[in-house]
Every structure is written in structure tokens, then in C-alpha cells.
User: Fold this.
Amino acid sequence: MKQFITLVLSLMTCGLFAQDVAFKKGNFKDYKAGFEKAKANLESGDEWLEKGKAQVLSMVYAANEYSKALEFYLPAQEFNPNNADLNRKVGHAYLYTNTPYKAMPFLKKSLELAGDDAEPFLYFLLGKAYQLEQDFEEAEKSFLRYGTLASDKELEPYKKLNRKHIKESKSGAEIFGMKTRVWVDNVKELNSFYDDIAPSISADGSEIIFNTNKSGNFDIYSAERKNRKWQSLKALNSLNSEGDDVSSSLAYDGQRLLLFKYTDSQSDIYESKLKGTEWSEPKLKMSKVVNTDANETFASYDPQDIKVYFITDGGYGGDKNISFSGKKDMKETFWGKAQSAGQEVNSGFQEGSVYMAADGKTMYFCSQGHTSIGGYDVFVSYRNELGLWGEPINMGYPINTPYDELYFSISANGKKAYFASNRDGGNGGMDIYCATFWGEPKKPTVASEDNLIASIASPIEDTYIPKSVEVTLANSLTVFKGRILDGLLQDPIEAEIKIFDNATGDVYAVMRSNSATGKFLLSLPSGLNYGISVEAEGYLFHSENFNLPEGSAYNMINKDIELKNIDIGSKIALRNVFFDTGKAEVKIDSYPELDRLIQLMTDVPSLKIELSGHTDNVGGDAANQKLSQRRAEAVRAYLVSRSVDGSRVTAMGYGASRPVNSNNTKAGRANNRRTEFEITAN
Assistant:
């Protein structure tokens, strides 16, 4: 022990005079055993360092290799803390782990010990470390110095990266100088000492799915937001296996989840569905035509669930790029061959994750390329009128830093986003962060649940992007949430929810309410007139209408829907039957709704109904009664023209005599103008 203390004191004394202590036997004559072990550790560490360098030059994740190198380097560095070469290697390894902020002390010590004899590559490493400290001027100087001092042979493999880092230093200095309207917080209730990644939130922001490797492998967890805190953290054991299971995208309805799993040393994309309170066993999403021998990893639904966007190894130049595939049938039996999302979003470096916003026009993704300020940054791209993705925009600081920012997802209202980062100040490794976007002050708005029409509110604006570039957050949509219940017993019902484009009659999307809770959650981008049909066996269907003109602001409507049994006396309002003002001709966009009524009468041959027309109190009673009668007869005529037996359908006009809301408001009058049917026999 005395000998070891003497050694440490000797090395500390050497350190005071910045002397480089080489790993030579002559320097450690009395400590042969320790020297031999340190040398062995150096050799093992060097092997892992070289593997890590090869990964970095191939643009492949290398934290595992560098972490293994540190397992050997750190004991050797503890034995001899004053070796310039070893301090450089320790700093080098830390730079490519999830704790890169630990690198700088070792790199500075290496420079101090080596002096003018420092390896040129040390300046490359110092440049990266200065980037992390946001000292972009020193970072650029270091990268330029490396490019000047290194020989052509040494510089060649790092030339592309060195140019990239110089560019990052320039853009970093600009971006960090911009004012922001966003606040970023560490979500401490979700984070651990280990890596916590890939947060994905439901459209209403009430549930989060994320991943942690605190058990040794990545497992999938969930949490619920209550009282402004994430609570009820639990492992989703039905999804977690002995290997890595990584979730990537929670569907907008909160009932489906995309994840990826490793099989035979390569990863494919899977899907699980929420059955009551339990997630189903994951099944391969898409097909082996899409899930190829390459690695397919982080994936995202598009709003209509027709396409899936994902990251694949088989991208442009062999890098991890963004691709997509579309299903060819509703049963998802066949999927199209994967296609690139385009060279605008795919860079010559790695893309790390992708998230499609609920408006269907906005893509958030993480990339090492484009105008990154270091590591992975979050970018946003907008789809143009031709369906192509536009030039990516860096989301700016404090979302992006010179560290890695990955796995970005955003709430439907565009006010909060979640992502993971290994920036300094976290709990350890990758941590989950929340970005809160501050918009301009808004006027209070009142939404009518009866009308179900999106309110117009001032949109949130981002002003933190450099120059005059503006990011428009994904808030041009309406979120419709609630429960499907039995109208008498109030029990939850698992119902099929179909969303239609009323202009064409085409099905926009299909989903189901939860069998255990009856909960449903719909995200409806602006720009369409939507018809929504809720159907369950043994019940009358229910319909809603959302007319969302282009540019409608974000709105959330929370409403329980009570389905009625097919009993005599049950009444249903046909919310998607439309007439021009003062006229009785059924408009074309009413046909999908009426076709659903025809299907009901086909399914229940004994059903007889009365069709009734209703108006508001504007105008004379006689005129209103006549108009309502003509409208009811027009609907009956449509049913009969589609082979419904006329004896099963009667038509009555009630004018303004049976209001369901007050006629004193515009919303009330709109609700009173309706077509209903009542079951008269079954």
C-alpha cells in the first residue's frame, strides 16, 4: 500500500509540471504487476476503440464499442493518470457515448501533457468537445487546426466529418444567437440513471409510451398525465421479451403501437393493439417485402393509417434514411415496396427517427445531416401541393444542442413535444425532455359540443428559427375524444368508428373504441368535411359531422356517445344529411350517411322507420312545415330509389315544433335544422 501511495504521489508531482508519463517498464520498476495489467487493459481498450472508429466512419452508432473501450481504459488511466496518449483515448471514447460531456477534462489534460507534440487528431476531438460546450468559435478553430496539421493520409478518412463539424460550428453560433419562444424541461418523473428514449404521446397528450434499458435491455413502459405530472408508470410486460423491445409510435387513437424487435441479428417493425386493458402480442407490421434483411426501426403512422414511415439501413448511400410504404388493401395483406421519402429529407448522413404529425402535412425527424449543430438534431419538413417534402428546417435551440436529440413527437395541439437527449445535466445517459411552445396571447374561445365545429383561434407561432424561417406547428386540426356507451346501461361498447370524406364518400380512416373503457380518440386535420359513423352490433348507428375548412385552428371536443338499442321509439339524428338553404334537394355529400341507413335496414329486415324533417324558427310556421315535409320526402325517395321497400318508410315534416336546442343562438338553430329517423316497428 505504501508503494502504491508513493506511486500516486510521484505521478501527481509529475502532473504538476505537466510531464507525460509513458507506459514503460522503467517508469514502474516497483509496480510490475500493476504495470502489466494496465498494459493489457490498454491493448484491449485499443481494440474496442478501433472498432468504434470504424463504426463512426461508417456512420453507424458506436456507443457500445466506445463504452467497452472505457471499461479497459479507465482502470489503466487510474494507474497512470499522466499519460497524454491515454487521456486522449479516454476523451475520445467518452465523446461517442451517451455521456460525451465527460470528455473535455481528459482531452485538455492530454493537450497539457503533450504540448507541441500533441497528435493532430487531438484537435479534432477538442473541436467536438468545444461544440458540446457551445464554444463554437473555439470548436471551429480546432477543426481547422486539425485539417492543417494532419497529414493527407491521416486526414482522408475524417475529411468529410471535419468539414461537417466546421459547418455545424458556423450554424451553431447563428442558431444559439436567436431568441426563442420555447421552454425545455427534463421530465424527471420518467427518467432514470439509464437510457430513457423514444417518448410517444397520444393525440390529447394524456398518455405516453417510452423505453428504458434499466433492466439491461430496452423495455416498453407507459405513464398517464395527471395533475400536470406523469404518473402510474408501468412496464408493458405483454410487449417486453428477453431482448430489446423498442416502441416508436403510438397511433393517434391510442389503441395501436408500432415497435421494433431484433430477430436473427436484424430488426423489423411490429404492431400491437390495445385489447381492453392489455396490449396484444406484437405482430409483423407490413410484410417481408418492406421488412427486409436491412434494419427497419423507428416508425410512425400517418393520420389515415394508409402509410407507415420508418428508418431503414437500406437508404441513400447505405445510410439510415427515411422510407415509407403503403398498404394496398384494408386487411393489410399486401404492402407496397418501400420508397425513399426523398432527398430533401434524407441527407448523406444518418437519419435517426421520424414522426408524422396528425395534420398529415408535417414531418418531424432527427438527422445528423442538413443544418445540424452537432450530433442528431430535430428538423421539420412540410409537404407541398405536389406531395413532396420541402427543405428541412432546424427546430433550433433549446430543442437542439450539439448533443444528440432524437425521437421527437408532438401533441395534436402543437403546444408540447417530447424527445430524448444525452445533453449535460440529465439523470444519466439519454433522458426524456418536454418542449413547451409559447404562442402569442390568445383570446378565450368557446366550443359548442353540440355543433362539433372547430373554433377559430390564433395559431401558435415559432420565432426561434434563424433568419426569417418560420416553423408552423401542427395545430390545424380537431381532436374528438370521449367514450362509446350503452345509452341505457352506460356500459362501455367496443364500436367501429368510420371517418368519411363527405365530399367524395370515401372512407378516410377506420378505428375502434376500447372494449374495456369505451374510449375513443380521433384526430381530424383541417381541409375536409368529415362524416363520422359509430356502429356496433345490436345498436343503431350514430353520426357526427365536422366541417373543418382549410386553416381551421386546433380544437378539442370531449363528448360521450350513447348508442341506442334497436328498439321501437329510438330516434337518431342524421348529422351528415345536407340541403341548400331553403331547398329540399338532397346534396351529394349526404349519400354516404343515407347509404349507412340503407345498410341498417338491409341488416334488420323487420325494421320500419319514420323519417322526420325539422327546421329552426326563422321564417313562418307554414313555410317551415312545408320545407321540412319536402325534405323528409326527399330522403325517403332516395332510400326507395336504392331498393328500400317504401312500405317500411314514412316521411313527416314537423317544421320548428320539435326543437332540441334553443333557437336563441346560431349554434342552437343549426342543431334544430336536422333530419331524424325513429324506429316505428321491429
Remarks:
- Residues 408 and 419 are 4 Å apart (CA to CA).
